Amino acid sequence: MEDYYVGNKEYFPKIGKIRYEGPESDNPLAFKYYDPEKKVGKKKMKDHLRFAVAYWHSFCADGSDPFGAGTHPHPWIADAKTPMEAAEHKLDAAFEFITKLGAEFYAFHDRDMAPEGATPAESEMNLQTLVAKAKKRQRATGVKLLWGTANLFSHPRFMNGAATNPDFKVVALAANQVKAAIDATIELGGQGYTFWGGREGYMSLLNTDLKREKEHLASFLIAARDYARKQGFKGAFYIEPKPMEPTKHQYDYDVETVIGFLRYYGLDKDFRLNIEANHAELAGHDFYHELETARAAGLFGSVDANRGEPRNGWDTDQFPSSYYETALAMYAVLRAGGFTTGGLNFDAKIRRNSIDPTDLFEAHIGGMDAFAVGLEVASRMLSDSKLSGFIKKRYASFDSGDGAKFEKGQMKLEELAKLGNDYGKAGIVSGKQERLENLLNQYLLGL
Ligand code: XLS
Ligand code: NI
Ligand code: NI
User: Fold this and answer.
1) Which among 46, 137, 284, 325 has most CB atoms closer than 10 A?
2) What are phi and psi of 102, to 5 degrees?
3) In the predicted model, is pLDDT for residue 1 greater than 60?
4) What DSSP string runs through 392-428?
5) Which atom of ligand 1 lies at the shortest distance from residue 151's CA?
6) Helices (H) and strands (E) in the chain, counts
C-alpha cells in the first residue's frame, strides 16, 4: 500500500512520498534536515513543528498578479465540468499533495474549498457538501485541520469592509459566512479558527468613522466567539495582525495593537495571535519581535510561516528559507512553551514563474527543512542557557531588596527618588550585543 492518498486521478503522478535522506542527499525531492520522528528535547520534530499546508496559495492561487494572467496550470480545475466538480478535484489534489509531503495539517478559507453560490444559503450548502467530502479524506489519511477561516475580502460586497462595513447589511452577510465557516471548522475537528481582517481598515479617514468601525469589529468578534463556544468549539480563536494591504491602515496593525484591542474588549481569554513573518516585516518589525511580544503577553498562538522580500513593500508571501530567522522564531516558540493548538502554516506561494509540478514540493521541503534547522538551533540555545543566563544576570538588581519591591509596584516615587539620590553613579555597563550575536552564529553552526 502507498503511504499517500490518491483520489480519482493522480495530480502529481511522477512524485512519490517525500522522505528524509539527510544533509548529504542531493535529491531535491527529499528532506535534508526535517526528520519527522527524530526527537528534539522531549518531543518529535513533527510534534514540535506541526506543519500545515495553506489551501489557498497551493491549490487556488494561479500566479496572476496586477500585471498579468495566471501561469500555474492547476490540472484539477482544468479537467472539471462544473465549479463543484472542480472543488472536489481540488480536494483530491490537496490531500494527495499533503500526504505525499507528509504534513500533518492544512488550513483553508470557506471559498477556497467550495465555490460561492447564487444566494447565501446556496453558498453554505456548497460548503457543507465539500466539508463532508473533506471529512472522509481526513479520516482516510489522518490529516488534520489546523484552522478554518472565512474569506471576507475577495467578493466585491466587501469593498468597504466586512465587520467594519458602514452598511449593516454587509456586516450581517459577513456574519452569515463566518457562522457557516465556524460550523465547517467544528465539523472537521479544526483546532483553531482564524480572523484575518482583510478589509477591516480604511482607505481614507475622510469617509470613515474609525471609532464606530473598531467597536463594530469587537461586537462582531464577541458574537462569533459566543456562537462557536455555544456550539462546543474548544479550539483557539486567532487574530492575524497585518498593518496594511489591501487597506491603507488595518485595525489589526501588529501584535501589540491586537493585544491592546483584545484586552480592552475582554477577548483575551479566547483569542491568541496568529503571527505571519511577512506581516511583521510590513509593520516595520521583525518576525522574532512579533513572536516575543505575543509570548510576553501570554497570547502566543500560531504562525503563518513565510517571509517577505525586504526590498519590496508588499506581502510577497515567499517560502521561508533563512535559518537565522527560523532559529530566532523557534527560540520564541519554544520559550512560549511550544505549540498547543497552533502550528507552522505555510501561508506562502511559489513564484509566478515556478511552473513545474515539483516546484510546489520543493518550496515546502525547503520551508520544512528551514524550520527543522531552526528548531535544532533554538533547542541548543535553550539548553545551553548562555543567552537566558546573560539576561537573567542583567536584571538581577530586581530580584531582591528594593528592586523587587519596585517590580511588585510597592514603591512610591519619593522613595525611588531618594534611593536614586543615594546611589549616585550607576549604569555604566556593557550590553555585550556583539558577543551575543557571535554566540548566536556559533549556535547556528552547531558549535
Ligand atoms: C493575507 C493573510 C491570509 C490569512 C488568512 O495576507 O495572510 O492569507 O492568513 O486569511
Ligand atoms: Ni496569513
Ligand atoms: Ni501574507
Assistant:
1) 325
2) 85, 25
3) no
4) HHHTGGGSSHHHHHHHTT---HHHHHHHHHHH-S---
5) 10
6) 17, 14
- Alpha carbons 236 and 383: distance in angstroms, whole number: 29
Specify if 233 maps to a domain: yes
User: 167 lies in which domain range?
Assistant: 19-384
Give the active site residue among 57, 109, 216, 279: 109
* Residue 252 Cβ < 6 Å to ligand 1: no
pLDDT in tens, 375-423: 999 999 999 999 999 999 999 999 999 999 999 999 999 999 999 999 9
Please confirm, yes or no, whether 347 is among the known catalytic residues: no
Mean per-residue pLDDT over the chain, rounded: 97
Total count of domains within the chain = 2
Does residue 67 lie in a domain region?
Answer: yes
Of the chain, the end-to-end C-alpha distance in Å amounts to 42
| Amino acid letter for position 415 | E
Of all ligands present, the nearest one to the C-alpha of 153 is 1
Q: What pTM was computed for the model?
A: 0.97
Which among 384, 417, 434 is the end of a domain? 384
Ligand 1 pocket, mutate which of 200, 242, 290, 345 (most atoms under 8 A from CB): 242
Place of cell 452577510: 173
pLDDT digits (tens, 9 = 90+) for 149-191: 999 999 999 999 999 999 999 999 999 999 999 999 999 999 9
